[in-house]
């Protein structure tokens, strides 16, 4: 503290200020004091004076020390302040120090001031220093932080277990995680599984060797984005270091490097492969000629091992005699590379040409090395040579060819090259030609065609196209040219080589020749003459077209040579043919031979061959040439004639045929034996010859014979057939069939009619028989259909047409199975017939179809037709239309049914009658029996008077009973008579009131209530008396059989149902047991109740009457409830009544 | 041999019943005869009759009766106990001339078919039959 301390004294009291300064001087404190007495001066002094320390009096009028402190703070002046004050309370002291004062001095203790100032300053200085240190520290920390953060490397501190304790922020650059995220990472997981073990192993090693950094630990770690990155890390164990307490891992991303390494390795491998596998020899040499490496191909080429190659060096491999070597080396020096051909030497000393490519390069370590690529060009050289010679050859061919050859560019159509012939032929000179384009020698019409073809030509490769075109010569004459074109490359251009063959002359000749040939061929055809040639010196065969035609073979198919030719000759003629040939060839005799040939279709032809041998100068046979003619017709004709003649001869003496000749006058000129036999008897002298031919012919044929004879003579050599009846020996007629032919007159012979005949009497008779039978079959009324074995119809008689509709023409030839209707019975029936054995027949009814499709029943009998050997020839069926009969049948059946019905009715009626008779007889007999009984009793003995009286009474009673029954019978029988009574409409209401009136007493007595309802059917047209009786009986019955405990009620109503009227009688009376008595209720004399009077006839009568009226009655009842009677009547009576129901009377 | 002494007649014809009564009584003076006009009543009393009469009882049955025919009577009779049935000897007594062979088959316990009027000779024949049976 050598400097003066600058003190700013904030004091308004001058005296105080002096005190202070004095105090300070006393203490020998070097200072400079400035006094400020106001805020303004204070501030000014702050600025200008820049004090080291401030002494402040607390109580300034305008400005106290607190304010000053605040100002200092505000201006950020860290100048220490000591407060000088007269009084100081503790609180105030604390307060002021809080505000920033460093110390305070009491005014009466000023001796403390200097030391206080010194202390404060010292403290202040220390404080400043401390702050400075802090700042430096901060700065340093920041520096290192920055370094660490921005480093490409990341640093992590791992616990001994491998958990991250600290990770530098730069980890984000390396692994993409923020440092906070990295702390949460599981290190093991982040490391690729292949490297995990290795890493932790290194960790262990590291832990065992503290403070020793382990360099170059390369592992794959997962980047935050999922990629794997190669990290090279350095591990250092600083677990014991109190500042670190962990393993420091310093790691950086070496992915790029790794990838580059990998690429390099691969590339190396590639080049190694290339080096080793190259077909060309590759050598690595030094510029001085040392061979450093040689690949397999090189070794092979030089026939040395790599070792030997290296030993031999360049000198040993290269042919030093080759002058090019030196040149090469020079050039390489200059340019660093060469490419040339050079002779090399193999191990065995042989020299071979090689293509060499060599270049100089610097190796990694700066050494100059050369690479040499050597290709054995022996083969190549040879090929080249060959090509050259071949080229030469072709050039020569091209030039010297006698045919014009033209080469033109496909694109420009210019002529590229032509040969000598072309120039000669077309008339242009070579120079002129080469100016031309193709179009120049194509005529107008060809140009278009050529243009069209051009595209095709362009596409063709290796195809020789042949066509015929017209070309123009220089003199504009047109020639016909056959061109052969071929696309090729010539000197790099797409060209076409065309060979032109002038065929104009040839064509002309050919045309002429063709015409001539045609003429010749026609001539041949006409004459049926063919021309042939056989080579004798050299074997060849030539046949003209006609020969082929004669032989019936096609030129294309038949190969003519001696062998095949001989095969065509008829075997019988072959020997003769061969002999004739031999003679002809040997001698001077010409070949003149007729023989047969066999055509491929088996036909036989006669040919006449004429030929001669052509010899050479020496007389040796050159060829055989001649003609052959088809003489079949002529031969056949002759043969026919000969055969006919021989036949004739045979015939004449035949035993079965007649043979005669009649002269122009009609007289027999000749007869054979048979004729003589059969007809000789006609003539008394048995001589026929000379007699008139008509004498042996029946009169009715005379005209016919004369006509035929006339025709014959008019048409000589034509055959006429005629049937002639001649008299037979037994008086019958012989029918004969004759062939007449007129043989013309010739100088030797007169004209004669030659007749050949046969006896056809039998045949005629058989025919007649057949015709008769056929007629018969035709006349038969039933259809006769015959089929062959397969069912094809071959006979269909007239009746079949009538019945079935089809004509014989339509059916003969058809299969009957196709015409059978598709009914279920027909086909199986046909099947049955088809399965019959000879002699069996089948009959049945079938549903068949007639023409038009209608079906009808037919009665069919079928049988197989067998010949004498029991073999099946066919089938025959006779059928007739069964419709009528069926109808009749049906009618009959119906009649039968009706009959049965009537019979049933009669039987029922009869039964009824029986019943009736029983009932009546019983009712008659009962009283009679009683009478008899009583009579007997009376006879027996005498009885007391009252008994006798009783007997008498009973007797009379029974007699009366008897009488009543008889009367009843009468009544019943009478009913039938009344039937004829007239019918009239009856109003029901009126009827009921009438009846009520009649029985009014009974009604009143019993309190009977009768109700009616006839609204629906108020009236009926009927027999009034019957209806009256019906109503009366039913009404009185209901009253009679009333229930004792109920008021008797009867309700009668009428209803309409269709044409009928229904009457219902309903009462509430006693009723009866329907089950037990239901069927007896209408029976005669049937009563159900003992105590009620009645004969039991009422309901019987009602029923009878109802039925006589043509209606019916029914009842239903329940005991103690009542009964209901229902009657159904026709609304209007009609005639039915009379006929139908008489039987009703007798039914019970 | 003693005559039967016990007789029943079932017939709706009063006269017939009278005749039967006299004929029976003339033939068998000791006879006890019960007459029924209604077959239903007879059936109802069948038990009583047996008790009253003892066995056997001769029953003459008519066929044609209004409420119940003789056959219907027999149908009901059929259902009675065996010993009841065995106590009665039944004869059909009818004025009908019909052929009752079918019914004879149907009702085999009917001993015979008789034609009205009942005669002394019928009774004698019946007695003879019964004597035979007993033997």
Describe this structure in words.
- The complex is a heterodimer of chains A (1148) and B (135).
- Chain A has 1148 residues and is of the alpha+beta class.
- Chain A contains 37 helices and 42 strands.
- Chain A is 44% helix and 27% strand.
- The C terminus of chain A is likely disordered.
- Chain B has 135 residues and is of the alpha/beta class.
- Chain B contains seven helices and five strands, in the order E-H-E-H-H-E-H-H-E-H-E-H.
- The longest helix of chain B is centred in the last third of the chain and has 15 residues.
- The mean pLDDT of chain B is 84.
- Chains A and B meet through helix 30 and helix 31 of A and helix 1 of B.
Helix coverage percent of residues of chain A?
40-55%
The major sheet of chain B is characterized as: 5 strands, parallel
State the major sheet of chain A.
5 strands, parallel
Runs of chain A with pLDDT <50, length 5+?
1135-1148
Number of strands of chain B: 5
Helix content of chain B: 40-55%
Number of strands of chain A: 42
Mean pLDDT of chain A: 83
Overall geometric form of chain B: globular
The CATH fourth-level homologous superfamily of chain B: Response regulator
Q: Could you tell me the radius of gyration of chain A in angstroms?
A: 80 Å
By secondary-structure content and strand pairing, the structural class of chain B works out as alpha/beta
Span from first to last CA of chain A? Answer: 177 Å
CATH architecture of chain B: 3-Layer(aba) Sandwich
The main sheet of chain A orders its strands as: 2-1-3-4-5
């Amino acid at each position: 503290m050598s400097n003066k301390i600058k003190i700013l004294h904030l004091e308004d009291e001058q005296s105080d200020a002096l005190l202070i300064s004095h105090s300070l001087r006393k203490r020998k404190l070097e200072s400079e004091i400035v006094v400020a007495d106001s805020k303004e001066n204070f501030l000014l002094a702050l600025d200008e004076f820049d004090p080291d320390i401030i002494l402040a009096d607390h109580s300034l009028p305008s400005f106290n020390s607190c304010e000053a402190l605040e100002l200092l703070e505000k201006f950020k002046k860290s100048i220490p302040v000591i407060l000088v004050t007269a009084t100081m309370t503790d609180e105030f002291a604390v307060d002021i120090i809080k505000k920033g004062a460093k110390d305070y001095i009491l005014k009466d203790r000023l001796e403390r001031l200097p030391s206080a100032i010194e202390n404060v300053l010292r403290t202040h200085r220390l404080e400043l220093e401390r702050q400075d240190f802090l700042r430096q520290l901060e700065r340093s920390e920041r520096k290192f932080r920055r370094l660490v953060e921005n480093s490409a490397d990341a640093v992590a501190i791992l616990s001994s277990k491998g958990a991250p304790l600290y990770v530098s922020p730069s980890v984000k650059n390396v692994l993409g995680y923020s440092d906070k995220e990295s702390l949460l990472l599981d290190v093991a997981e982040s490391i690729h599984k292949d490297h995990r073990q290795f890493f932790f192993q290194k960790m262990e090693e590291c832990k065992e060797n503290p403070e020793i950094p382990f360099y170059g630990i390369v592992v794959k770690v997962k980047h935050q984005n999922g990629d794997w990155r190669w990290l090279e890390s350095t591990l250092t164990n600083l677990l014991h270091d109190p500042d670190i307490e962990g393993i420091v891992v310093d790691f950086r991303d070496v992915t790029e490097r790794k990838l580059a390494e990998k690429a390099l390795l691969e590339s190396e491998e590639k080049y190694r492969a290339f080096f080793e596998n190259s077909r060309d020899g590759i050598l690595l040499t030094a510029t001085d000629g040392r061979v450093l490496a040689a690949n397999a191909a090189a070794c092979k080429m030089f026939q040395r091992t790599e070792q030997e190659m290296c030993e031999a060096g360049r000198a040993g491999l290269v042919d030093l005699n080759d002058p090019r070597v030196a040149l090469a080396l020079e050039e390489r020096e200059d340019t660093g590379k060469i490419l040339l051909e050079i002779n090399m030497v193999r191990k065995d000393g042989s020299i071979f040409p090689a293509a060499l490519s060599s270049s100089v390069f610097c190796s990694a370590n700066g050494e100059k090395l050369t690479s040499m690529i050597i290709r054995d060009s022996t083969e190549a050289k040879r090929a080249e040579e060959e090509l050259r010679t071949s080229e030469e050859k072709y050039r020569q061919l091209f030039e010297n060819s006698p045919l014009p050859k033209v080469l033109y560019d496909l694109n420009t159509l210019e002529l590229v090259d032509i040969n000598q012939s072309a120039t000669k032929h077309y008339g242009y000179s070579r120079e002129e030609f080469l100016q031309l384009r193709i179009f120049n020698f194509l005529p107008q019409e060809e140009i278009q065609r050529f243009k069209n073809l051009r595209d095709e030509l362009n596409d063709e490769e290796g195809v020789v196209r042949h066509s015929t075109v017209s070309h123009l010569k220089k003199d504009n004459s047109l020639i016909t040219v056959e061109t052969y074109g071929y696309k090729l490359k010539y000197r790099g251009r797409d060209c076409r080589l065309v060979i032109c063959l002038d065929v104009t002359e040839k064509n002309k000749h050919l045309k002429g020749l063709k015409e001539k040939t045609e003429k010749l061929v026609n001539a041949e055809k006409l004459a049926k003459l063919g021309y042939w040639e056989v080579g004798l010196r050299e074997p060849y065969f030539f046949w003209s077209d006609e020969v082929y035609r004669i032989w019936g073979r096609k030129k294309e198919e038949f190969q003519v040579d001696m062998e095949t030719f001989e095969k065509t000759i008829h075997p019988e003629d072959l020997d003769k043919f061969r002999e004739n040939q031999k003679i002809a060839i040997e001698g001077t005799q010409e070949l003149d031979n007729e023989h047969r040939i066999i055509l491929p279709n088996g036909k036989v032809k006669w040919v006449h061959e004429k030929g001669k041998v052509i010899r050479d100068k020496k007389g040796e046979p050159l060829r055989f040439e001649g003609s052959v003619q088809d003489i079949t017709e002529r031969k056949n004709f002759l043969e026919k004639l000969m055969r006919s003649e021989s036949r004739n001869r045979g015939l004449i003496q035949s035993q079965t045929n007649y043979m005669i000749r009649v002269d122009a006058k009609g007289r027999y000129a000749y007869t054979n034996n048979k004729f003589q036999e059969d007809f000789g008897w006609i003539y008394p002298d048995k001589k026929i010859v000379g007699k008139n031919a008509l004498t042996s012919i029946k009169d009715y044929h005379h005209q016919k014979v004369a006509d035929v004879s006339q025709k014959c003579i008019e048409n000589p050599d034509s055959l006429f057939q005629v049937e002639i009846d001649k008299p037979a020996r037994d008086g019958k007629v012989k029918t004969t069939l004759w062939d007449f032919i007129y043989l013309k007159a010739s100088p030797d012979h007169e004209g004669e009619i030659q007749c050949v005949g046969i006896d056809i009497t039998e045949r005629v008779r058989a025919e007649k028989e057949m015709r008769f039978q056929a007629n018969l079959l035709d006349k038969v009324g039933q259809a006769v259909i015959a089929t062959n074995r397969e069912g094809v119809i071959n006979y269909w008689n007239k009746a079949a047409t009538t019945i079935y509709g089809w004509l014989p023409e339509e059916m003969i030839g058809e299969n009957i199975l196709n015409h059978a209707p598709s009914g279920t019975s027909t086909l199986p029936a046909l099947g049955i017939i088809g399965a019959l054995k000879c002699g069996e027949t089948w009959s049945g009814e079938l549903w068949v179809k007639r023409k038009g499709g209608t079906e009808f029943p037919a009665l069919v009998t079928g049988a197989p037709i067998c010949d004498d050997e029991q073999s099946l020839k066919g089938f025959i069926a006779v059928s007739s239309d069964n419709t009528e009969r069926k109808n009749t049948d049906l009618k009959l059946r119906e009649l039968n049914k009706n009959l049965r019905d009537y019979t049933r009715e009669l039987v029922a009626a009869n039964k009824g009658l029986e019943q009736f008779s029983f009932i009546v007889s019983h009712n008659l007999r009962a009283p009679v029996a009683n009478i008899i009984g009583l009579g007997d009793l009376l006879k027996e003995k005498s009885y007391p008077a009252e008994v006798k009286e009783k007997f008498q009474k009973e007797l009379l009673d029974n007699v009366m009973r008897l009488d009543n029954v008889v009367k009843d019978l009468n009544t019943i029988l009478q009913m039938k008579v009344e039937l004829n009574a007239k019918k009239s409409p009856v109003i029901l209401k009126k009827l009921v009131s009438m009846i009520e009136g009649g029985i009014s007493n009974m009604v009143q007595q019993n309190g009977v209530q009768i109700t009616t309802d006839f609204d629906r059917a108020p009236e009926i047209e009927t027999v009034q008396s019957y209806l009256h009786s019906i109503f009366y009986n039913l009404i009185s019955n209901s009253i009679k059989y009333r229930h004792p405990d109920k008021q008797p009620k009867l309700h009668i109503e009428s209803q309409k149902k269709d044409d009928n009227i229904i009457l219902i009688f309903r009462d509430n009376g006693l009723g009866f047991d329907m089950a037990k008595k239901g069927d007896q209720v209408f029976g005669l004399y049937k009563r159900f109740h003992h105590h009620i009077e009645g004969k039991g006839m009422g309901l019987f009568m009602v029923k009878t009457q109802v039925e006589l009226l043509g209606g019916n009655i029914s009842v239903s009842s329940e005991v103690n409830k009542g009964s209901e009677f229902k009657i159904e009547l026709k609304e209007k009576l009609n005639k039915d009544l009379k006929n139908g129901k008489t039987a009703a009377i007798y039914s019970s | 041999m003693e005559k039967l002494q016990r007789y029943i007649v079932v017939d709706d014809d009063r006269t017939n019943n009278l005749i039967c009564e006299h004929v029976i009584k003339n033939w068998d003076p000791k006879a006890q005869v019960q007459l029924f006009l209604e077959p239903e009543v007879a059936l109802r009393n069948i038990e009583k009759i047996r008790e009253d009469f003892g066995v056997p009882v001769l029953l003459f049955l008519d066929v044609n009766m209004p409420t119940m025919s003789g056959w219907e009577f027999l149908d009901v009779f059929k259902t009675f106990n065996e010993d009841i049935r065995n106590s009665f000897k039944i004869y059909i007594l009818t004025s009908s001339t019909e052929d009752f062979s079918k019914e004879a088959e149907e009702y085999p316990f009917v001993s015979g078919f008789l034609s009205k009027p009942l005669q002394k000779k019928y009774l004698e024949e019946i007695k003879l039959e019964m004597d035979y049976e007993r033997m």
